Amino acid sequence: MKKAKVLSAIPAIFLAFVSPAVAQVTLKKISDCPISAAGIHTPYTFPEITDTPSPAGFSPVYISHTGRHGSRYNTNEKELQYISRTLAECDKQGLLNERGKELRRQFEVLYDASRDKFGALSSRGAMEHQQIASRMHNRYPEVFHNRKSVTAASSTSIRCVLSMANFGTSLVRSDNAIAIDYAANDETKKYLMKNTGIGDIEKKRREIVSPLKKEMFNPDRFFNAICNDQSALRKIIDDRHHFCKDLYVAGGIEHCIDLDSQIDLYSFFTDKELYTLAKLDCYDFYGDHADSREFGKKRVAMADELVKDIIFKADRALEPDSPYAADLRFTHDWVVSPLFAMVGVDGMDKRLPFTSVDKYWMTSDYIPMAANIQFIFYSDGNSRNTLVKVLLNEKETRIPALKPVSGPYYRWSDLRAWLEKRIHQFCD
To answer: Is there a contact between 122 and 71 (Cβ–Cβ < 8 Å)?
Structure first.
């Protein structure tokens, strides 16, 4: 099997596949690689791996791919406006020391680069999807030897549509005989943007986490380091925790838009502060979008239509003389996360209390920009013997609830039955 190459200089320690025993938020992880604290704002990287050989006689015949859009600009213009105006006012009143002035200078670099691009796919995000598509074709060329039809469905968000376009363009560049049928409409929204009732979950999660944020994160050191007069500063910044959270998000985005060679917003936090912010970020995201003990049954159930689409299209592709080589889907972090949980991939297969999930789970390990799940189907020529390997962010993973045939290879009949069972578990 081919070896996949490293395509990014960003340390890959936090994205390489890890067992749940080490997939946790630790101070060492963040000290070694501060950007790992960025959660869903972590850019996508791909470490060198080696594929496990498939069982004798089996070759890949079909791929089902579902991925998040690539790296993007900050989606909330008001967050950046708030920081910019606040720092400007502090500077105007003579409150910023030299460190504070440097923070303002660096932040304005990010703000200027983001104007008129809020929520847009970045050049890095486009590249991420081009590279994922190229690796897919290079790793599994047999899939595209005789089958040339590919479907690509997207959320109606422009960053998802452009992620789909970059992926498809790269795939066709690898084989110009491939024909892709693109779709992004109200029909695709039904399974790629389903989040009915999520507002209630977010509200209840905030009620639980808000007191913890004030208890766990002390902003005093941060503001003492940039400001001369804390009493005067408090008259400008009434919610210092909120300011630090917005700056923390911006510090992740700088990497997503390739500004990390010019600025380093995370350098204004200590490693311990980033560690605490990363833990709180895990609480927020896991509580809102994963299989938490508190809200998981309701939240993960929202992936039901997507799982049904995966099953339907896989069955279609496995029919005799099917022309389909791959089915591709492009969506959001708040869709792929419940999907990973419903599939039951290793590390997202257990229902955990979200206010202690940092001991077992770290957002950036599972849901970086361009996060994806791929089902690679294998056949020995007998349709009853179809096997499937699951890749999480392109790395082989396990389904702990199922017994593999060997290594990471499962019977499709077993996985299919498992997925239907999971739909009923969460939706009944």
So the answer is: yes
